[in-house]
Amino acid sequence: MLPARSSLRSFTRSVLSSFSFSAQRPLSSAMSASPPFHQEPHKLLVIPGPIEVSDDVLYANAHPAMSHVSPEFIPILGDCIRMTREVLLAPTSQPFLISGSGTLGWDQVAANLVEPGEDVLVLKTGFFGDSFEDCLTVYGANVHHITAPVGDVVSQADIAKALKERKYKIVTFTHVDTSTGVLSDAKMIGHLVKELSPETLVVLDGVCSVASEEIRQEEWNIDVVLSASQKGLGVPPGLSILSASQKAIKVFQERKTPVTSYYASWQKWLPVMQAYEKGTAAYFATPPVNLVYALHKSLSIITKESPTLVERWKLHSEASAKVKDACAALGLKQVPVNPENAANGMTAVYFPEGITAGDVIPRLSQLDVVVAGGLHKDIKDKYFRIGHMGVTAVEHQRGDLEKIISSLGSALKDAQAAKNS
Amino acid sequence: MLPARSSLRSFTRSVLSSFSFSAQRPLSSAMSASPPFHQEPHKLLVIPGPIEVSDDVLYANAHPAMSHVSPEFIPILGDCIRMTREVLLAPTSQPFLISGSGTLGWDQVAANLVEPGEDVLVLKTGFFGDSFEDCLTVYGANVHHITAPVGDVVSQADIAKALKERKYKIVTFTHVDTSTGVLSDAKMIGHLVKELSPETLVVLDGVCSVASEEIRQEEWNIDVVLSASQKGLGVPPGLSILSASQKAIKVFQERKTPVTSYYASWQKWLPVMQAYEKGTAAYFATPPVNLVYALHKSLSIITKESPTLVERWKLHSEASAKVKDACAALGLKQVPVNPENAANGMTAVYFPEGITAGDVIPRLSQLDVVVAGGLHKDIKDKYFRIGHMGVTAVEHQRGDLEKIISSLGSALKDAQAAKNS
């Protein structure tokens, strides 16, 4: 019922929009080949997002002003929608690319897929699960949760038990919780829900996992993957990126109560995404044109150039092993309690006994390496976090990993020497 | 009640965030001086937003990746908050700078300032008033409206009558409705509400007016100005920019029911804005770092360089007169029925008899000038729109106005010759 009215409106708008002609030169293709642009020298940013952005992508972010309804821009956004499906191995899904931060993905899920009073199960492996729960509560969900011990995942047995006790509208989990570096087993969760509660929607928070961790959305029975531009995708922050299964879209279309957000409403965005993909414009809110050009550049590299997506996952895994092995050699203990549940796009490690953030992080910064402190409330002063996503993991000629490892060794040595002196 | 909990959380987060040290070089200052960057050649974009962006601002948008909680970035966002107050002449207001499009400003108003069932009066001068009403309805407001005839404003007498009949929580109006080019009298509305219904909050939708039309938020009794980055402020799209009076903040803080949005909640954003302004980081959602650098560059030019803000308003007025006089000389009738209610940042004019969008707009595009077609449902095929905001109005050496005027003359002449042949 809801989408019908919206589709009509979108159609009207797309007709109106077609009057904003423009034949600006397709700069994006010219910009693909060795840009004359080189970003300013800067310290290596290896927090778990935002991450280092390539010159090509930054140059696309400096694209001249373009009309959001122009014949040149329409296929750029259309391509981004199509390439999002490729990156998530979700050929039949419906992507949503919306101006906003990753957090907006939670609102999209809570406002479009949950009706007030419905039961939702949140699997928590850190800070971001707490926040997603908070968001779901705002929109009236009846939230249940299972919280893993710090550094651990929620066990298959606990999830199975919960699914047998109650029928949930949605199960959510954080694929990589940026606060702990814990990687949940998306494949296991997707298959388990399908087996025990096939009507339940599975939502993967992939803000810190898309394009750095293996995700096979459709094969793994994941109904929603939500993410953002500034992590594995290697684009500046400002885009909420979400991919919804046709099953999720059907649940949205059949909801009995009105959508409880305006800006995050798929009632508004679905016809816009459909129009741009078909090659016509539609208007609900102005898309972040430059960020879309930047995303287009990055998704083109990921989906069409070498290494392939599968090779990228492997390169992230190798980068992760390299950093984690170096940490082990330095005597640093991982926050994830099981190596199998450690993220490949980031590393969270405890400081050595007697050493604090103030001893290590400023020293790393002096060496031009920017890492992040702790975030999880239970251990916040005891650990720090290193990101190794995107170009840092994939482009070996940059030497980012070597710089991280050698700087970390020097900083720790200096810190310990200072303590002992 | 609500903000207290939130403040505590923000404090905790700001402490955590302080562990993400980084001493990246302050590139923004280096980037201020004659950048080596020149954007690609492109057609002149003179739709009523997005508008042409200067090389300096685009270069800032290509800033290297920076941590959103770094000591270098914190004052950049802090400065943007302070400069937003300067641009709006609102020295005591609370700005909110959030990743999202201008539309998100409506959600901020509807979710934070209106409680379900409260009466809101929407003064409508075009398409955008209809949409704001739609948004308010989603969040449960009891919406009343007064709709002006196409091209006209709502009269002072009609507003006064409505204010005497009922007490409204909020009165909203679109300062410049981009669909009609109609400029509402913000000063009159602000003063009238203060006189007749002093408790009512006045909300100005300034998406298409901030930095191109005179706005004196505090002097004129405007409680909320909401805007976006891609119009008069001359930045790529992707930032929702809002300034709330202390009276509005108090109304928010004293609300009896929970805020009905997560992403747009001031409960989340207020402590973040306060922290960045004080010089510490706080986290709710990752800010769009590059767009904030771009906004910083543009706001610095507007508030600190020549021309001054007041001179800018005059330059927009002069640019507008120049374009409107040229249109009159070509026999084109304005959509605004009264010249006093015509925007200074854009021009909406009817096509001559027998001429359509398809005759004129593609011809303008051939001449490298991109304008916009009609948007208001009642007259959509009968008119078109030209934007003259930002650098197009202010930097005479660009010759944008001359190019618009000469191209328009040629395109119309060609279109008429083709009809007559």
UniProtKB/TrEMBL annotation, chains A, B:
| Cross-referenced InterPro entries | Aminotrans_V_dom, Aminotrans_V_PyrdxlP_BS, PyrdxlP-dep_Trfase, PyrdxlP-dep_Trfase_major, PyrdxlP-dep_Trfase_small, SP_NH2Trfase/AEP_transaminase
Q: Where is the Aminotransferase class V domain?
A: 58-376
Keyword list, A-Z:
Aminotransferase, Pyridoxal phosphate, Transferase
Return one Gene Ontology term, BP aspect: glycine biosynthetic process, by transamination of glyoxylate
> EC number(s) of the enzyme?
2.6.1.44
The family classification in the record reads: Belongs to the class-V pyridoxal-phosphate-dependent aminotransferase family.
**In the record, what terms sit under GO molecular function?**
alanine-glyoxylate transaminase activity; L-serine-pyruvate transaminase activity
UniProt name for this protein: alanine--glyoxylate transaminase
Q: Which cofactor does it need?
A: pyridoxal 5'-phosphate
Which positions in this protein are listed as binding substrate? 385
Q: Which GO terms describe its cellular component?
A: peroxisome
UniProt modified residues of type N6-(pyridoxal phosphate)lysine: 231
